[in-house]
Amino acid sequence: MRANTTTSAITGDYRHALEARAHPLKSLDTLAMIRPCHRSQEICSQDGPAEYVYYVVFGAARRCVLRADGRRQIVDLLLPGNFFGFTGGDAYDSSVEAVSEGTLVARYPRRRVEALADADPELARELRQVALDALSRSRAQLLILGRVTAVEKVGSFILEMAARLSDGNTDRVVLPLSRYDIADYLAVSVETVSRSLTDLRNRGVIALSGTRTIRIVDRDALEEGERAGTRLH
Fold first, then answer.
1. Cα–Cα distance for residue pair 194/154, rounded to 1 Å
2. Residue 199's domain spans which residues?
């Protein structure tokens, strides 16, 4: 009985965390099942049945696909406030794994969500906005991948993370993911990521504290490199 009471208390804390966070689909909170995840734990699997849609409450997750040669490509980084799991078919087109320990996700029964959206125009509008947000993230990644040099790609990635992780100080970025994940997101090697960060540091564009904390020292240089690549070559 004591163990059950403890489990109920923990579940209640998780639900309170969800209910305390503003998000576009608040009307679905009563349907949510809360799930804490360990680092690298799979949340949903590529080609698995698409039974749920998900929302990141805390932590971070990576959406991955396997290439034909067996290598992994990260196609989306999911941060608090992001939804995922929407698909046009009956199976997921990618796998999603927790990036950080203690990542918390809420999951909603997909068929129930779709049925409610059919009857509620406001909910349908909110779902469309969630889908558009996911498309915007994909567009941002494509623009980063389209940069000419690795240094430009890493610089653009830093700016993207600064914008998405902003806590009021957009010049300090605490990355929730490893350099290996960054490499798989940018489609370069981890050695290339490390060299690019070192290059940006040596040029005085950024400062590094440990392996995951970055301070933007010269934002103009990063932004100019993002626009034209002229100062980061």
1. 10
2. 146-227
HSE (CB half, 13 Å, CA atoms) of 122?
5
Are residues 132 and 154 both part of a single domain?
no
What pTM does this model have?
0.83
- Divide the 233 residues of the chain into consecutive groups of 10 and give the mean pLDDT of each group: 42 70 83 93 95 94 87 91 92 95 94 94 93 90 90 94 79 91 94 96 94 92 69 50
Report in angstroms the alpha-carbon separations of 8 from 1, 2, 101, 140, 186: 11, 10, 21, 40, 41
Residue 114 placed within a domain: yes
Domain total in the chain: 2
DSSP H stretches of helix in the chain: 2-20, 110-119, 121-145, 150-164, 179-186, 190-202, 219-227
Evaluate whether 43 touches 105 at the Cβ level (below 8 Å).
yes
